[in-house]
Automatic annotation (TrEMBL), chain A:
PANTHER family: RNA POLYMERASE ECF-TYPE SIGMA FACTO, RNA POLYMERASE SIGMA FACTOR HI_1459-RELATED. InterPro entries: RNA_pol_sigma-70-like, RNA_pol_sigma-70_dom, RNA_pol_sigma70_r2, RNA_pol_sigma70_r4_t2, RNA_pol_sigma_r2, RNA_pol_sigma_r3/r4-like, WH-like_DNA-bd_sf. It comes from the Bacteria. Residues 104-155 form the RNA polymerase sigma factor 70 region 4 type domain. Coiled coil: none annotated. NCBIfam families: sigma70-ECF. GO terms for molecular function: DNA binding; sigma factor activity. Pfam families: Sigma70_r2, Sigma70_r4_2. Belongs to the sigma-70 factor family. ECF subfamily. This is RNA polymerase sigma factor. Residues 10-74 form the RNA polymerase sigma-70 region domain. Keywords: DNA-binding, Sigma factor, Transcription, Transcription regulation.
Automatic annotation (TrEMBL), chain B:
This is DUF3379 domain-containing protein. The chain crosses the membrane at residues 73-92. Keywords: Membrane, Transmembrane, Transmembrane helix.
């Protein structure tokens, strides 16, 4: 397999790997490192890559596991940078600002979700995978995924409603 | 799109029962300029989802092609080096730079020292010569064997 062959396989989903890593690891740099690591692992195993019937799903599972490992080692280090515990108290005046502000809010709310819910929302609402694919990637059954997804969506909606009404009601 | 329809979809959506097509419908609806006021809170949610899906990985990944070591050629090279070594070794032996007199001197010295060793050796053997007396005594003691004969005779009877 040449480099260009490899790139044609990898290009369609490398952004997805990156976004998934970023969702879990929060920091862009770490997500980039993780993505690079995943791609290198794939490149190293390029001979066996043809045997996998779904390289994309396989890579997503790999990414998930890799990020979990990363997070675990980070917790073990007793060092935690919390990105989401500050509140923006300034009142946004323009509608534009307000929109981007509430977009940020969604991101912050998503960061507070449990990791599994984060993963599922990422895979379903952002990457738009079918439930069947997600089930395969996460090694869960579809019902459990639906339940988790529903919980996550409701949490996001409720939190958004309360921030949206902040100062009004 | 009918608002009623959207509300129904949203309920399904919250329960995690929508299909991808239905979710796309919702996304399309919430990307409009005007949204029903009581559904306003869904707007940032869907906007965020579509925004997040556009983020890209831009870092370059170095893909190294590992050069495979050919052990066959490695062994050929090793044999070559060995033969080269042997050749030079014999070449150097042919042209050792000792003169004839030096060689003779060395030979003489070795001879002398070996001579000395053998002289000391002989001295040693002379001193151990008296041990032969034991041998003669041994022969003399042989008559003791005669004891065996009468004993055998006794046991046989």
């Amino acid at each position: 397999m040449t480099q260009s062959d490899f790139l044609t396989i990898v290009t369609p989903f490398k952004d997805k790997v990156f976004r998934l890593a970023k969702r879990l690891l929060v920091s862009t740099e770490e997500a980039e490192d993780a993505t690079q690591e995943i791609l290198m692992k794939l490149w190293k195993n390029k001979k066996t890559i043809k045997n996998y019937n779904n390289v994309e799903a396989f890579s997503m599972t790999m990414t998930k596991n890799f990020c979990y490992d990363k997070l675990k080692s980070k917790h073990a280090q007793n060092l935690k940078i919390v990105h989401n515990n500050y509140e923006d108290t300034q009142v946004a005046l323009q509608k534009q600002l307000e929109v981007s502000d509430s977009l940020e809010w969604v991101g912050k709310i998503m960061n507070t979700l449990p990791e599994q819910q984060k993963l599922i929302v990422q895979l379903r609402d952002i990457e738009q995978y079918e439930f069947k694919e997600i089930a395969k990637m996460l090694d869960m059954n579809e019902t459990a995924i639906r339940v988790n997804l529903s919980r996550a969506r409701k949490t996001i909606r409720e939190q958004l409603t309360s921030t949206h009404n902040y100062g009004i009601k | 799109m009918v608002l009623n329809n959207i509300e129904q979809l949203l309920e399904k959506y919250d329960n995690g029962e929508t299909t991808l097509q239905e979710e796309q419908q919702l996304k399309d609806y919430f990307s409009q300029e005007t949204v029903a006021p009581h559904l306003e809170m869904y707007r940032p949610m869907f906007a965020y989802f579509s925004k997040s899906s556009k983020e890209q990985f831009t870092k370059q990944v170095p893909l190294k092609t590992k050069s495979v070591i050919h052990y066959k050629w490695l062994s050929v090279a090793a044999v070559g080096v060995l033969m080269f070594g042997f050749f030079f070794n014999s070449f150097l032996n042919e042209t050792d730079d000792y003169t004839e007199t030096e060689k003779a001197l060395a030979y003489q010295q070795v001879k002398e020292s070996l001579h000395f060793v053998s002289k000391q050796f002989n001295k040693g053997t002379e001193k151990v010569g008296y041990l032969e007396a034991i041998n003669t005594a041994g022969i003399q003691v042989d008559y003791l064997k005669e004891f065996n004969h009468p004993l055998r005779r006794v046991f046989n009877n």
